[in-house]
Design a protein that fits this description.
6-stranded mixed β-sheet, alpha/beta, 15 helices
Amino acid sequence: MPLPRTRGTALRQRLAELRGPSVPPKALDARALAALAANPGCRRRAILDGAGVNKATLASALGSPSAFGQSQFALARGNTFEARVKADGGAELLRLVHEKLDPGAVAPTEAEVPDLTATGPEGRTARTALALRDATTARAASGTGGWTLLDHPMLALDVAGSPAFLEPDAVVVHPDGSWSVVEIKSFPMLDGSADPAKVGAAARQAAVYVLALEEVAARLTQGGDPAPTVRHRVLLVCPKDFSNLATASAVDVRKQRAVTGRQLSRLTRIEDIADALPEGICFAPDLPSAELTAAVESVPAEYAPECLSACELAFHCRDRARARGAVTSLGRSVRAELGALTTVDDVLSAAHGRSGDPEDPTVAALRRAATLRAEALRGAELTSPERQPQPRPEGAVCR
C-alpha cells in the first residue's frame, strides 16, 4: 500500500505539474529573489519562480521575448575574473577580506577550504551548514583560530513556504567565528568607485545571502552551539579600473537586508496561489499560444515600469496592463496617488465629473487639475500667433 503524500511532497508535485512534466526546473537565484522581493504583490512571478518556470522561454512562447539577462561574454569574463581572485587557495580574496572587513584580525597566511561536494542542492546545503558549524565551534572552543573560505556554498532560504537554494560566490569565517558574504562582480571600480546602480543591485543580492546565512546561524544556535555572528558588511570585489587586478569595497547591507526581509515576509504563500488556480493549468512553453496565454493570465500580476529591468515577462505584462488601461503602467508612485481609481478611464471620468465622489480627496484633486489644465489651454489659445490680428502689407487696399 503506497504511503500518503505529505503536504510538502504534494506541493512539489503540484508545482511540477504547473511547470510541465517534461520541463526541468529553473533554480531561483539571489538576483531573481531580490527582484521578487521588490514586487511582493505580483502573484504571477511568485508562482512561476516557485514552480521553477523559465520565464525567458515562457516570454518567447507568448510572443513577447525579453531583452532582460546577462550576455554570454559577460558571464565568461566574470567567471575568468572570479577564478583569478580565488586562485592559490583564495589568498588574494582573503587578503582583501582582511584589509576591508577585519584589519584587526590575524593576517590570513593560509586558510582552510572545506570540500562542499554533495549530491543535490539539499545535500550541498547540509554540507555547507556542517562546514560552517565545524569552523565556528572550533574557534569557540580554542578561543583563537584561522580563516576558513567556503567556495560557492549552498544556502537555503524559505520563500513563501517553498525553499530556494542560493549559491553565493564565497562565505568567509573570520578568526573570531563571525561570517561574511563575498560578492564578486565583473564591472570595474574606477578610482575606487563603481556604477551606483550596479553596486545597489549587488547589495540587494548580497542581502539575500545574509538572510539565508542568518537562518543557518539560527539553526546552529538551536542545537546548543555558540551563536555565530553574520556580518552585515559584505565584501564587493571588482576589477580595478579596466585591468584584471582585483580591488574591493566593504558595503553595508543592513538597509537592503531589512527591506528584503520585510518584503519576503509579505509574499503570499506559493501553496495558496497554487490552490487558487483552475484545474489543469500548465505553463509548459510547448502548449498552443492561446492556451498558454490563458494560463498565464489566470494568475494576477502587478506590473510596474521597474519590472522592465528585473523580470523576463515584463514586456508581456506591460502590453496587458496598457490594454486594460491600468494605471500601474504609469508607475507605482502614480498608482499610490490615485487610490481606488485603477484604470485610466476611471481617472479621466472622475476628472471630468462623470463619476466619483466629490468629497473624495483624490477625485477633488483630479477635478481641480482638469480645471487648471483647461484654463491653461484657453490662455495659450488666446495668446497664440494664429489668433492675433495680422498687420496689413504696405500699400494694401481695403475693400
